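WARN no homologs supplied; continuing
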Amino acid sequence: MRKKLTGAERDRFCREFLLSMDPNRAAKRVGREDGYALLRLEEVAERLKWMRRMELPTRQDVLRRLGQMAFGRVSDAAKLANREMVESGELDLSDVAELKITDKGTEMKLIDRIQALETLWGLLDEEGEDGMERFLQALKTEDEKEGSKCGGGAVL
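OK structure emitted
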């Protein structure tokens, strides 16, 4: 291997690797040849571990987001379709997969809730019955908090 890897090269390699999961592509981005050799370096392994903790979503983040997608409300999307509150920036459009606003109207495609539920079920199934029960209880608790703020009913 050439000269020692600088801190900037290490950080860029780690970012590129986390984006592509291709060590050789990431190595080329920093002017190196063997990405697998870079992955074996202790300093790179430590930096990757830190970056994963700081920057990537955890399994819990993914489960939470899938739950929001599967059970979320679409009232803000309906408001947008009726051209209400478009300027305010306070709309939650996280369940909108595609959006097109023209002079003739608003076209929108919502996320596939069935797919979100199937994915969520598969991930929760890995934790067994206890994982599903904890998740459903957390969703119910979160919905009760939100419902008391805006007078809404329960999702579950």
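The CA atoms of residues 62 and 120 lie 9 Å apart.
OK
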